[in-house]
Every structure is written in structure tokens, then in C-alpha cells.
Prior knowledge:
By secondary structure, this protein is of the alpha/beta class. Helices cover 48% and strands 13% of the residues.
Amino acid sequence: MDISFKFDPEILIGADTLSMAGTICSRYGERMMVTADQGMDARTIKRLKDILGDSGIEAIVFDGISEDSSVDMAQNIVELCCAGHCKAMIGFGGPKTQIIARMAAIMAPLRITAFELLDGRTCLNKFLPLISIPTTGIDTFAFTQYFIAADPRDRLVKSVESPDNLYAAMIVDSNLFQSFSGASASISVLGGFCSAVEAYCSTKANFLSDALLERALYFFGKMLKGGPGGINAETYAQAGFLTSLGASVSSPGIGSALSFAVNARYPALKQICGAVIFTAIAERLVSARPEKMSRVASYLGTGKFASVAETANSVAETFSRCMASLNVQPNLKEFSIPLDRLMAAAEAARNLELVSHSPWTVSQEDVFGILKSIL
């Protein structure tokens, strides 16, 4: 297939890249709307405001977003943004903050509601430039022409259209990943690895996505194997960026969709859910993409077996050992989640268009079997 690849955002990755925020944002106006995490250190927000202020930019800050906030909070941000005549949107925080900032940037010029956007309203290429400053890693959907959001009316996931050039810039400062330690870091790396594998095995994968995702898997594998330096924020930032970029050329699949579906009902479980679901779909990925899963095995350091199939089959066992060594449970049984509380959410996830790019035809029975095995 032909590949048409256009990449507009300016990307900065590395320690202390936040210092460049003023220089980058000054290109888009003198007043910015900053959407931030509720629990973010006040000194970190002040630092961003000071950096922007030194470049002559006034920042209006909304820092009320928590992990269980619903996306209709974007309407509050739009009201502040429009009242303050802000010229651009800054998403400063974790995945939920990035999603809400993305929605607000699309909604603000048209003054539409979050529900209109969730119901399929198109943006007509009118939006505020969005500068993303993630603090816990890069969302898999950061560079795709759509993203996944939970509708607060029924808590089911939906795919939301995103303009091609919505992102003006992304600043990935590994020093901002303050919570990147201990169990949180381990779960993040496991979840990132799973996202990379799924996009790598997608039916949309091509030579470009393979090159990006293989490099991401190399970084994730290095961290999971506990090599020199172990798990560190800078390597994780690079791996996350490569995964997001690779997924935009390829596609996430049913694992990502189900992770969002579970997270819509139980907000604190997304990262761990991705790792747990991977253990349930690894066998299917091996059957559908044995050569690629054999390659994945090499990044986990499983060694070579007599055949490609045996090497590929070693992935699930090795990954489970990685989870055990990092003290991550292989299922969600400790949370006592009733299966019937997730079936409608899982079916909504299965109906997302991205699932059609999974390397096998995902049936209702598949989804039921995956959920049953992890609950």
C-alpha cells in the first residue's frame, strides 16, 4: 500500500525541555489556556506560568482535572478560554487531562458542547492550536486523526474525530514525570509495551510503523529486562513517543479499546488493565502474527527456540514473568469487578473502527472470553 505521511507538530523530548515552552507558545498569541491535573504540584504550575510570562504570555489556568473527571468538564474550560480570549490551549498533565484539553481545543472556536462532539459533530477545521505537555507519558492516540473518550451519559467509549493539524507542538520533559518510580513506573512500562506490540501486529502496519515500533519495543524490552539504568523516565519518554508515532501510522486494536472501556467504568485501572489484557490476547496475536511475535520475543530476551512458532509462544510466558518480577498481578480479580458490569462497555469497544485492524476478526465470544479470563 502507498504511504502518505505528514507530521506537523514540533516535538521536543528530553530533560528540562519545559524551558522552551515560552519560545514555542509565543508563536500562537499572548494569552494561553492551561488545562492541568488537579493534583499537580503548585510549584510546577507556577514554573510553567513563569516561563510563559518571561515570553510575554499570560496564562489562565484550570487545574481541576482528576483521574475520574468526565470529559464534559471540557465545557468549563471552553467557557474560561472564550471569556479570556485565549489564542491557544496547553494540555499540562496526564492522559485524562490531555483528552479533555484536546476536546476543549476543538470545541472552543465553534462553542459546541462536549456531547455534540461525542455525537459526531465535525470541527470544520476551526480549532485552537494545542500544545501538549504530558507529565506521565504519551497517549497512544496522540498523533492519530481520532481519539477515544468515554461518554459521561452512559460511560461507553466513543471515537472522536480530531483535525490533522490540531497539535501545534508537544514538549516531553522527562523531569516532569515525578510519579515515575516504583510500581507506577513498572505498570507504565508494561502498558506501553503492550500498546507497542498491538500496533506492531496490526493489519495496518507497514515498514514505517514497523521501524518506529521495533525501536520502541527495544526500549521497553531493555527496561523490562532490568538492564543498566533499569526503568528511567528519559528512556520511557522516548519509547512512548515512538509508540504513539508508530500507532498513528499503524493502529491500536482490541486491547487498547478494552483498556479504555474498563477505565471508563473504573478510572484507576487503565495502565494495569492494558498489561492484563495483553496476557489474554497474546495467544491470539501469536496465531495471527507468529513472525512478528517471534521478533517481540527477542526484545524480551527470551532466546531462540527451534521454530518461529515456539519463539513466538514464549512471549506470553516471559511477559507474565516480567509482571511477577515487578509485583504486578496477572488479572483484575483483586478488584472484584462483576463481569456483567463490563459487557455493554466491552461491546461498545469492540464496535470501534480501530478494532477492525486487529490481526484477527474480533467476535463477541472473543471479547467475552478475554473479560472472563481477566476478571
